[in-house]
Amino acid sequence: MILDFVNRQKNVNAEYLSVTIAEALIDPLKKTRKFEILPRSTADKILKERNISKEQTFSEETAIQIGEATGADVVVMGSFVAVEPTVQIQAKAVDVAEKRLALSKSRTAKLDAKIFDNINALADDMTQEMAEKLPPLTQRVVYQDSGLFIAKDFIFHGMANAAVTWGFESKFLALGLGGSFNTSFKFLHRFVQPYFATSFALTTGKTQIDKMSAFDFSGGLTYAFIIPKKWGWVQETQIRPYVAGGAAAGTIKTSYDINYMVPAVSGGFITDFFVHKNLSIAVQIQQQFLFDADTTLKLLSVGLGAGYRI
Length: 310
Fold this sequence. Notes:
The protein is α+β, with helices and mostly antiparallel strands and 310 residues long. The chain is built from five helices and 13 strands. 17% of the residues lie in helices and 51% in strands.
C-alpha cells in the first residue's frame, strides 16, 4: 500500500508532489516482483471511514492501522517540506505484521525541471532497500481481499476488579474484590475475534452468608473498534465489546459450606488507552449472570489494569 505524501508546509505550489512521489514508487516496486500494489482507493476508503486526516498518515502508528484495515503487509508513506527553491523529501516503509519501521530514506532537491529525476532516484533507492530488507511474498503472510489468515493481533489484560450484586441477592452479599485475566485475538478473519477470560473474586456477606468465593472461566467473541486520534499521553484508543459464556465455581460459607458449580454468561466492554504502541491502561465494565436452579446471581463489576498486545 502506497499513501500520498504529506505536504508538511502546505505549500500550494508544491502540492502536486503529494501524488507524484507516491506514483513514482509504483513501477519500481512492481518490477521487483516481490510486491503487489493495492489500489490507493482502498486506503482512501479507510481514511474516510475512520475520520483520519491526510496529515496523520505520516505517523507510523496510523500507517500500521491502515495496513491492518486494508490487509497490506507493507505501507509506504512519506512527507515533504517545500521551501522554495528546495524541497526535502522523506519516504518510509512500515512492516505491518512486525509493527515496525522497516526503512527510511530522504533526499533534498531543487524545485526545478530536475525534480522528477530526483524523485525517480529516491524511488529506485527506496525500492532496492525494500526488496533487500523485507521478506519476499513467499515468506510472508499475504492478505488478500478475503482477509484470511490463521491468528494475529493478540492482546492480554490483567485486571483488579470490584463487583456488587443487584436485585434480590444484594441483601445477602456486599462488595466483592478480585482479579481477572483475559485475552483476545483475530482468528482466520479480521472480523472473527475470540475472547477468553478467567477470574477470581471474594465477596463478603451481609445476612445469613459469611462470604462467597467464585472462580470462573469463559469464552466468547469480541471486536476491537479503533480510535486512532491522539490526546495527551494516549496514542490510540480501542473499545472492545464482548459476550462470553462458561462456568463459575466456588464456595458459599454460611453456618456450613456450600460448594457450587453453575453456568455463567457475561457481557461488557474493555477500553484500552495505549500509552505505548504495545502497552495500554485498560478499563473494564462487565455484567455477569450466574444461573442456579432457584435463582440468578447478577454481578456488576468494574476493572482497572493493563493490556499488552503482540
